[in-house]
Amino acid sequence: MLYKYRAFISYRHSENGRRHAVALETALKRYAKPTFARPMSIFRDEKHMRPDISLPKLIREGLENSEFLIFLAERASAESQWCGEELEYWCGALQRTDRLIIVLVDDDIALNGTDGVHWEQTTALPGLLQPYLISIPLYVDLRWAKRPTDTDLQNPKYRQEVNALAARLRGVNPEDLNDEEIRVFRRNIRLRNGAIGVLLGMLVVSVGATFWALNAQKEAQRQQQIAVRNAAEAKKQQQIAEKNLADRIEQETQKERLNFDKYVSSGDVFANSGDFPIALRYYQKADSVLQKFPNDAQLQSKREVFAQKLNHALIKIRAKR
After folding, report:
1. Could you tell me if 110 and 122 are in contact, meaning their C-beta atoms sit under 8 angstroms apart?
2. Are residues 91 and 212 in the same domain?
3. Among the listed residues 262, 312, 257, the one whose alpha carbon sits nearest the alpha carbon of residue 290
4. 77: exposed, middle or buried (C-beta count within 10 Å: 0-12, 13-18, 19+)?
5. Among 8, 72, 122, 140, which one is most buried in terms of CB atoms within 10 A?
6. How far is CA 43 from the centre of its chain?
7. pTM of the model
8. Number of domains comprising the chain
9. Is 144 exposed, middle or buried (0-12, 13-18, 19+ CB in 10 A)?
10. Which residues contact 216 (CB under 8 A, 6 or more apart)?
11. Cβ within 8 Å of residue 30, ≥6 positions away
């Protein structure tokens, strides 16, 4: 089924809810988007409100024409009648609970061990979701994002969360989408540099034509000075773009270093508990990071100790067969 909107953002129109909703919509539309491609279509009710439109009808049509529902969870939205009706219609009438995405922006979601949500201690979700969330829900935690700079795509932590959300909306692997974002960023730089080159070429032609048409040395010199200044500015912008790319690549490398440590730590937990098949899965994820960055000194310095853990897990698994 084709949907008009990729996602519907449900939130309380409070200062915190609106701040997160606007930032999230902007980030999802910009993330991994080629220069000339249309941005992702997202329904946020405040953009569609008009005095002559029935708000309940507007909301219902928005829900029906959306592929996913992103619920910004906090106490204010959990107690909101409008948010409650949106969730009830989505999970009940439309039966799309499997496409409900929870983004925690304040307060708490308490878990009852492995049994699911501890509803008596949960303040960020409405109780009406209890029949629908029968297991532990996966959610994105953005409670740490308090400042405007926290919800900027230049922030690596926020960028990682947006990558996970965008991958869910597009139905792709987060790692694949992250690689696609880097490719799009590089391609956009090439397009911009090409446009700068074309403009510089046109400027040079314009300077030459003006020189020969007017046959005035003074005018030609003035145009030439303008061309030199523009060329210098273009070169400066290109250097800035190259530096930004280098910084982005370093950020992604640092993220993979953190992922490596996370995978190894998770593997250690399961290995220490004797669950070596699960431990092996995490060790293999960590090994894929090593293979992806063979020239990174920080990662490769951990190879020897990690290899011992990996081999130990393999030996234990073979011994049980």
Report:
1. yes
2. no
3. 257
4. buried
5. 72
6. 18
7. 0.57
8. 2
9. exposed
10. none
11. 39, 153
- The sign of the torsion formed by the CA atoms of 282, 286, 291, 293 equals positive
Kindly state whether residues 190 and 288 are assigned to the same domain.
yes
Whole-angstrom Cα distance, residue 239 to residue 34?
21
| 221 and 126 within one domain | no
The string of pLDDT tens digits covering residues 82-91 is 999 999 999 9
Same domain? 142 vs 184 = no
Residue bearing the bigger pLDDT, 318 or 206: 318
Report yes or no: 245 and 185 within 8 Å, Cβ to Cβ. Answer: yes
Residue 169 burial class via C-beta count within 10 angstroms: exposed 0-12, middle 13-18, buried 19 and up: buried
Q: What is the pLDDT of residues 137-193, one digit of tens each?
A: 889 999 999 999 999 999 999 999 999 999 999 999 988 888 665 565 445 445 455
CA 50 – CA 246 distance, rounded (Å): 45
Average pLDDT over residues 198-220: 72
Examine the fold and report which residue of 172, 187, 214 is the final residue of a domain before the chain moves on: 172
Give the structural domain span for 15: 5-172
Report the pLDDT averaged over residues 6-17.
96
3-state secondary structure the chain: CCCCEEEEEECCCCHHHHHHHHHHHHHHHHCCCCCCCCCCCEECHHHCCCCCCCHHHHHHHHHHCEEEEEEEECHHHHCCHHHHHHHHHHHHHCCCHHHEEEEECCCCCCECCCCCECCCCCCCCCHHHCCCCCCCCCEEECCCCCCHHHHCCCCHHHHHHHHHHHHHHHCCCHHHHHHHHHHHHHHHHHHHHHHHHHHHHHHHHHHHHHHHHHCCHHHHHHHHHHHHHHHHHHHHHHHHHHHHHHHHHHHHHHHHHHHHHHHHHHHHHHHHCCCHHHHHHHHHHHHHHHHHCCCCHHHHCCHHHHHHHHHHHHHHHHHHC
Phi, psi of 138 (to 5 degrees): -85, 135
